[in-house]
Every structure is written in C-alpha cells, then in structure tokens.
Design goal:
Family: Belongs to the thymidylate kinase family.
Number of strands: 5
Bound molecules: adenosine-5'-diphosphate, 3'-deoxythymidine-5'-monophosphate, magnesium ion
Function: Catalyzes the phosphorylation of thymidine monophosphate (dTMP) to thymidine diphosphate (dTDP), the immediate precursor for the DNA building block dTTP, with ATP as the preferred phosphoryl donor in the presence of Mg(2+).
CATH class: Alpha Beta
Distance between the termini: 26 Å
CATH topology: Rossmann fold
CATH superfamily: P-loop containing nucleotide triphosphate hydrolases
Pathway: Pyrimidine metabolism; dTTP biosynthesis
Order of helices and strands: EHEHHHEHHEHHEH
Number of domains: 1
Pfam families: Thymidylate_kin
Strand order of the largest sheet: 2-3-1-4-5
Largest sheet: 5 strands, parallel
EC number: 2.7.4.9
Radius of gyration: 17 Å
Oligomer: single chain
C-alpha cells in the first residue's frame, strides 16, 4: 500500500479574521501532537515573483490588473512541485490564503468574471479542507484599523466577501466555516480538531486537482 499522504488545508477569510495567527498556531499544534506539518503563506513575498507582488501591494509599483492576477497565481504554481513532494512524504501543508483569495480579490475589482479569475489556478493541488474564518466587519474593526496596503478598505473587503460566498457555493470543495470571533485558543482547538479529522480521512486518498 502506498505511504500515507499529508493533507492540504487552506485558511481563508476576511481581513483580520485571524488566518495568519491560526495558520502559525495550527502548524505548531499539529507538530506538538506528533504530526509532520508545514506552513506556506500566499502571497509568498520572498520569491522574485513575490517581491513584485509585494511592491504592488505596498503601492511602490503599479501593475496592470490581469498581470497581477497572473503573478499571484504564478506565485502559487512555483510552490507546487515542493508542495506535492511534501504531501506525498506525509507532511500536512497549511496554506494561509490560496487560490480562493486570488479569485475573490480580482473578482471584487468588478470587471473580471469568476470563471476568468479561476482559470490560471485550475489544476493546482486541491485543498482537502478550506476553513473559512468568519468575522463580522464590526468585530474585525475592533482588531485595529486597516493598514496602507492596496485592497485595505471596508468597501473593497465587502465585495471580496461576496465573491468568497459565491466560491463557497461550489459543493465539490470541502468548505467549513468557523466562528472567528472566539478566543485564539478556542478557535485553535476547533480548527485543530477539524484538521486532524480531515488528515485521517484523506491519508489514503489521492491528491486531487483544483477546479478540474
Ligand atoms: P489575518 O491574517 O486574517 O488578517 P491576523 O491573524 O493577522 O489576521 O490577526 C489580525 C489581528 O487580530 C492581530 O492583531 C491578531 O493578534 C488579532 N487576533 C487574531 N485572532 C484573534 C482572536 N481570535 N481574537 C482576538 N484577536 C485576534
Ligand atoms: P496578506 O499578506 O496580509 O495576506 O495580504 N491577494 C492574495 C490577492 O489579491 N490575490 C491572491 O492570490 C492572494 C493570495 C489579499 C495579501 C493581500 O493580497 C491579496 C491581501
Ligand atoms: Mg494574514
């Protein structure tokens, strides 16, 4: 029998819902429980493509909208060979944002349909679980003001949320919504338990391709 594989777990949600906090905490918690787990943040601003994306987000550089959409996708694709290798070695990969942020943010610009937005990411490793951290705009506001990066405004974030809801209608994907207003530790416990259940369920199943 083939060796057990790791699970691919994506964290999505509105700004300040706690994706980065929970991503770090989940990998830490899984490792402490004896699992092999790694974290990837998308965009990964450390690669050459990621540095271009970062200069766009901090408004140092203007990039045409199609171009930047494709760069975000390329920034995922450049990780795919290593992601697949790790998953097949039994390492669970937690991704802080994935193709769903890619689609939701570009679609929120208004002149890009969901279908066009999805195409560059078709065939990426399909997440076994997508955790959507749900938080009301009021509660998010209590966690601090928006920064100065592109996309950080409440009107734009509301459009992003509507795009996420459209993507969540796809029942071929394993979306699970969690209440992100809980304390960091309570939410961590809930997320870790859902993650471990998924890891158990998919360990002998083949890795699938996204939107294919
Ligand atoms: P995201 O990556 O979704 O934008 P972060 O993990 O960076 O969110 O968290 C945004 C801010 O909210 C940080 O200051 C973080 O410490 C705080 N925070 C995260 N989770 C919680 C929580 N469950 N309760 C209260 N504050 C939180
Ligand atoms: P953070 O680094 O704070 O998560 O912000 N984005 C992200 C896109 O527009 N497309 C994508 O494919 C991805 C992964 C969301 C990153 C910002 O970049 C946006 C917020
Ligand atoms: Mg974050």
């Amino acid at each position: 029998m083939a060796a057990r594989r790791g699970a691919l777990i994506a964290l999505e949600g509105v700004d300040r819902a706690g994706k980065s906090t929970q991503g770090r905490r989940l990998v830490q918690g899984l490792r402490a429980a004896g699992h092999k787990a790694d974290l990837i943040r998308f965009p990964d601003r450390t690669t050459e493509i990621g540095q271009l994306i970062s200069s766009y987000l901090v408004r140092e550089k203007d990039l045409e909208d199609h171009t930047v959409h494709l760069l975000f996708s390329a920034n995922r694709w450049e990780h795919v060979p290593l992601m697949k290798e790790k998953l097949h070695q039994g390492i669970t990969i937690v991704v802080d944002r994935y193709a769903f942020s890619g689609v939701a943010f570009t679609n929120a610009k208004g002149n890009f349909c969901l279908d066009w937005c999805k195409q560059p990411d078709v065939g990426l490793p399909k997440p076994d679980l997508i955790l959507f951290l749900q938080l009301s705009p009021e509660e998010a506001a209590e966690r601090g003001n928006y920064g100065h990066e592109r996309y950080e405004s409440s009107s734009f974030q509301e459009k992003v949320l509507q795009s996420f809801y459209c993507l969540m209608e796809d029942k071929t994907l394993n979306w699970k919504t969690v209440d992100a207003s809980q304390s960091i530790e309570d939410l961590h416990r809930e997320i870790k338990s859902i993650a471990e259940k998924t890891m158990e369920e998919v360990q002998n199943k083949p890795l699938e391709e996204l939107w294919k």
